[in-house]
UniProtKB/TrEMBL annotation:
<comment type="subunit">
    <text>Homodimer.</text>
</comment>
<feature type="active site">
    <location>
        <position position="166"/>
    </location>
</feature>
<dbReference type="InterPro" id="IPR017926">
    <property type="entry name" value="GATASE"/>
</dbReference>
<feature type="binding site">
    <location>
        <begin position="218"/>
        <end position="224"/>
    </location>
    <ligand>
        <name>ATP</name>
    </ligand>
</feature>
<keyword id="KW-0658">Purine biosynthesis</keyword>
<feature type="domain" description="GMPS ATP-PPase">
    <location>
        <begin position="191"/>
        <end position="382"/>
    </location>
</feature>
<comment type="pathway">
    <text>Purine metabolism; GMP biosynthesis; GMP from XMP (L-Gln route): step 1/1.</text>
</comment>
<protein>
    <recommendedName>
        <fullName>GMP synthase [glutamine-hydrolyzing]</fullName>
        <ecNumber>6.3.5.2</ecNumber>
    </recommendedName>
</protein>
<comment type="function">
    <text>Catalyzes the synthesis of GMP from XMP.</text>
</comment>
<dbReference type="InterPro" id="IPR022955">
    <property type="entry name" value="GMP_synthase"/>
</dbReference>
<dbReference type="InterPro" id="IPR004739">
    <property type="entry name" value="GMP_synth_GATase"/>
</dbReference>
<dbReference type="Pfam" id="PF00117">
    <property type="entry name" value="GATase"/>
</dbReference>
<keyword id="KW-0332">GMP biosynthesis</keyword>
<keyword id="KW-0067">ATP-binding</keyword>
<keyword id="KW-0315">Glutamine amidotransferase</keyword>
<feature type="active site" description="Nucleophile">
    <location>
        <position position="76"/>
    </location>
</feature>
<dbReference type="InterPro" id="IPR025777">
    <property type="entry name" value="GMPS_ATP_PPase_dom"/>
</dbReference>
């Protein structure tokens, strides 16, 4: 496996995803973490960083167990690190070193550039640059502006590049990572969904034995894939609970429950809609809504878990991005924008051991694993849906009537996206019900009714997002259907805000 030492770059996770796409297992650890054993890794990658090596507080870990002993690739800060602290010179860059550049010189005898040719586009993003290499370093690629775009330390399997191979705009980036990991470090490309399923099922069997496990299904991809893996490992000792909080999409509870049963899962559907609505009565503040919904869920789930005799494990669909320790988190506090962190969401009165079958994999890998388990493509391709559901898409207080209204609007929107074959190209879509009324006219009558917002975004992980340029004809048809079909709504607007500064949800 591969160790990615993180110096805090925004795109460190992308390095890991590219490596995984090559079917090679890797882990990200903060450069200053003591929680891993270097000896377990066959190769190491140093990430980029917002720091400058020239500042006193720059990350400066001890690489004595790594450099010269294992194949090592420094990226951006990682490259400058290998120069600055080893006798070379890094200084402020005088020319522009952001964005696209092309390799103008390549040392074709060097395995790092196998199958990569002059002209290859690379993506730069640094304000420091390598001015002078230490003596035993050899330049292996340059761009027009940057002589030392890539180098090798002679006599070592140490390589470094100042550009970012992990980003999409470095067109041969994945090839370069493959060259390093496969051609140079000799790693096997055997981390596949099938091998993941095999080893995970075996591990789960071993870990759980004949004890019982309870798992909350949400209808989403993660909990479903986690459930199917556990089902394969322990069968009927897995007890799934699917709670209807009354804030799901139209018909979702019945249809998803049906689907789960068809998949052979040992699942119990619990309709707690009334309890949730009751707890939400009169609450307008978004964070208080989230808390009320979260607490109601814990109560319902706990009651159900108590009905399972001798259950000792709680399974969760936690995935790798929720687990990766971030450099900024160890260096200082980061602001919570919305209280939706599922990690550590375990109520302690349940006192169960936790099992998380997906904690080592990324979302795209969860889908690949799901596919190899034979889970329906439609289920795997579902848009993300927030835990508090329509509760945070109804601005202001929540009533059964408003939920019903929004369910209808949302249904028309999503069915339309599917019919127009737009659903799969959108990352997430949904509708919000606004707490405003506006004047309209229907027939000869003046109306004074609600306004709804349609939102469709593109994104890769929900951290940043942009609104989708849906066809006008589609919006026109959808708006007509909503206004004519949903009583109480007389106005439809489309949200054209990106994240940041807006968020995806309105609450
Ligand atoms: P925002 O609105 O923060 O949303 O841009 C980013 C992603 O997170 C989802 N989201 C939530 N998911 N509980 C969840 O499980 C929540 O409270 C919550 N709030 C937002 C949102 O749907 C989007 O995919």
């Amino acid at each position: 496996k591969v160790l990615i030492l993180d110096f805090g770059s925004q795109v460190t996770q992308l390095i890991a995803r590219r490596v995984r796409e090559l079917n090679i297992y890797c882990e990200i650890h903060p450069y200053n973490s003591k929680k891993f054993d270097v000896n377990e890794f066959q190769a190491v990658i140093l990430s980029g960083s917002p720091h400058s090596v020239r500042n006193g507080d720059a990350p400066h870990p001890d690489l004595s167990e790594i450099k010269g002993k294992k194949p090592l690739l420094g990226i951006c800060y990682g490259a400058q690190y290998l120069v600055h602290f080893f006798g070379g010179k890094v200084g402020q860059s005088s020319s522009r070193e952001y964005g696209r550049a092309n390799l103008s010189y390549i040392d074709h005898s060097n395995a790092l550039f196998d199958n990569i040719n002059e002209g290859s586009q690379v993506w730069m993003s640094h304000s420091d640059t390598i001015i002078e290499l230490p003596k035993n370093y050899k330049v292996i690629a340059s761009t027009h502006d940057i002589d030392n775009a890539a180098f090798q330390i002679l006599g070592e399997q140490t390589y470094a590049i100042q550009f970012h191979p992990e980003v999409y705009h470095s067109t041969d980036g994945k090839q370069l990572l493959e060259n390093f990991l496969v051609h140079i470090a000799g790693l096997e490309q055997d981390w596949t969904p099938t091998s993941f399923v095999e080893t995970t099922v075996a591990e789960l069997k071993d870990k759980i034995g004949d004890e019982k496990v309870v798992l909350g299904l949400s209808g989403g991809v993660d909990s479903t894939v986690a459930a199917v893996l556990l089902d394969k490992a322990i069968g009927k000792n897995l007890y799934c609970i699917f709670v209807n909080n009354g804030l799901l999409r139209k018909n979702e509870f019945e249809s998803v429950l049906d689907q789960y049963k068809h998949m052979g899962l040992n699942v119990k559907g619990v309709d707690a809609s009334e309890k949730f609505l009751d707890k939400l009565k009169g609450i307008e503040d978004p964070e208080l809504k989230r808390k009320a919904i979260g607490n109601a869920f814990i109560e319902v789930f706990d009651d159900e878990a108590h009905l399972i005799e001798d259950v000792t494990w709680l399974a969760q669909g936690t995935i790798y991005p929720d687990v990766i320790e971030s450099v900024s988190a160890t260096g200082g506090p980061s602001a919570t924008i919305k209280s939706h962190h599922n990690v550590g969401g375990l109520p302690d009165f349940m006192k169960l051991k936790v099992v998380e079958p997906l904690r080592t994999i990324f979302k795209d890998e969860v889908r690949r694993v799901g596919r190899s388990l034979g889970i329906d493509d439609e289920l795997l391709g579902r848009h993300p849906f927030p835990g508090p559901g329509l509760g945070i898409r109804i601005l202001g207080d929540i009533t059964a009537e408003k939920v019903k209204m929004l369910q209808e609007v949302d249904h028309i929107f999503l069915e339309g996206l599917k019919r127009w074959k737009l659903y799969d190209s959108v990352w997430q879509a949904g509708a919000m019900l606004l707490p405003v009324q506006s004047v309209g006219v229907m027939g000869d009558e003046r109306t004074y009714e609600k306004a709804v917002v349609l939102r469709a975004v593109s994104s890769t992980d929900g951290m940043t997002a942009d609104w989708v340029d849906l066809p006008y004809k589609f919006l026109q048809e959808t708006s007509n259907k909503i206004i004519n079909g949903v009583k109480g709504v007389n106005r439809v607007v489309y949200d054209i805000s990106s994240k940041p500064p807006a968020t995806i949800e309105w609450e």
